[in-house]
Amino acid sequence: MPIRQSKSARTFTRGSESDTIVRKMERQTTSALGRKIAQSTGIVMASVLLSRVLGFFREWTVAHKIGATAVTDSYYAAFTLPDFVNYLVAAGSLAVTFIPVFSKYLADDDEDEGWRVFSIVTTFMGLLLLVFVGLAEVYAQHVVSLLAPGFGPEEKARVVFLTRVMLPAQFFFCMHGLLAAVQYAKGRFAVPQLAPLVYNTFIILGGVLLASRIGITGFAVGVLAGAFVGNFMLQIYGAVRVGAKFTPSLNLRHPGFIMFVKLAIPIMLALSLSFTDDWVIRWFGSYLQPASITWLTYAKTLMRVPLGIVGQAIGVAAFPVLAHLYSEGRLDEMNRMLHNTMKGLILMLVPIAALTMAESRPLVHLVFSHTRLREPDLNATAATLVLFSLGMFGWGAQNILSRGFYATRDTITPAVVGTAMTFATLPLYWLFVRHAQHLGLALASSVGITVYTILLFVLLFRRTRDRQAGELLWFAAKIMLASAVGGTASWKFSNWLGAHIAWRTMHGAFVDVCIVSSVGIALTALCIWILRVPELTMYVRRIYRGRTRVAAGDASS
Fold it and tell me: 444 lies in a domain?
């Protein structure tokens, strides 16, 4: 005889089934978003890989054509005022400040209004940039005296000239931020990611084609041409492809524009450590021996290669999804996305940093051996790379954590914390540079960005009410331990191998880097497996499945 359920029992059963279905749908949705981020990350990572390779080759071309001298110090110092103008109008952050605004209108199914806000913001920011660039051109000589006070008259005059050549590029960078933002919000990443490729290519061409005739100025001309073609003209094409509608407007009372201003002003007024670090290094570096700024620049460029490939790619791809989740009030899914994003960053970037420190000397000899750099330049760059690599994970993590705040439409917290950290670390730069010259600047940079990252982490996970932060910290501790073991063993093995091969040649350095890195990666992976980190197996399985699908597709075709 069948047992009949009471009405309350049937209701409870249906409720349980409903909860189960909801949880299953949430898992499926999170998984779909994860795949979307992974696909976008793949596009961005490929672009950033090429961009970082070109960025390195850009610096290699400077080293090959000019070397490491007071002239190259002047060239790198000339970026300070243009960067400052860029920072004043938050041009470098326009994408992350405008995406939440535009995403809100997309989520509300009111895209036409979103394009009206785009028109207002673009018109206003374009006019503002023209004013700032004009003032900077007029007062460049006075401002450079403040930004690089340690240079002599000849170097200072060269900095002023190069600064004036490169300043107009900031207008194109500003427009790129807005044009890229609407493409990201629409899920299109390809065209925006071509911008740095075109930009770096033009700088390289400027050096190769013009340096023999006009010296270091050829690189500055390449900066301006690359910004115009890659960051402006190409992005107009990309924006048109996603249906961009632009009508000049200065309706500054529009609610969307007001929302944008509220997000952008804290970034404009702040002096975040993530932006000011280069300025501080150049300011102190102008007082040091010639080529100090160049050594710091080359080392930081090498550190930024894996940092950009991993950290920047994940941050750019994840941000539009995080902003969309917050706009729809799906805070739990947003926290899960942040966790997965941070775990991926930790698993990839921390071991890379450890291996970079272990292999700094053969790595620098490998990439700069056929340039005008001498042995002291190579050794100084390698030692600086070790200290910059200590902060590699901090640089990558703060990029994602700050975007977590921006996704929640909070630009005030990272701005206040970043500004406070800038002023708090200035005595640290001063103290370290007195005792260790350029090496002290690199160490102060790494210490400052690491502390800044820790503060952002604590504040973000409080804001999003995430109760699983402890799990993420335990995961990070395991990866750091495994990386420390792998890095230390790689360093000792590299020293032993260096006694048996001529690693100061390009061929020998290549052999050293390949062998030691392979051993280091294998040992680090073994330690991670011993520490029972399931994410390693999960990522390996995903890669294997992806290759299997590709192979099956090739076979069917």
Answer: no
> Closest by alpha carbon to 139, among 81, 100, 224, 74?
81
Q: Do 372 and 386 meet the contact criterion of CB atoms below 8 Å apart?
A: no
For residue 238, tell me if it sits in a domain: yes
3-class secondary-structure state, position 286: coil
By C-alpha distance, which of 393, 351, 347, 349 is closest to 540?
A: 347
Residue 354 lies inside a defined structural domain of this protein:
no
3-state percent breakdown (helix, strand, coil) of the chain, nearest 5: 85, 0, 15
Residues 6+ positions from 175 with CB-CB distance below 8 Å: 122, 125, 126, 231, 232, 235
Question: 236-290: per-residue pLDDT in tens?
Answer: 999 999 888 898 999 998 988 998 888 888 777 777 777 789 889 999 999 999 9
Residue 165 phi/psi, 5-degree rounding, is: -65, -40
Q: Please tell me the number of Cα atoms within 13 Å of 40 on its side-chain side.
A: 25
Domain of 129?
Answer: 30-269
Domains contained in the chain, number: 1
- pTM equals 0.73
Within a domain: 280: no
Q: Dihedral, CA atoms, 56, 174, 96, 418, nearest 10 degrees?
A: 70
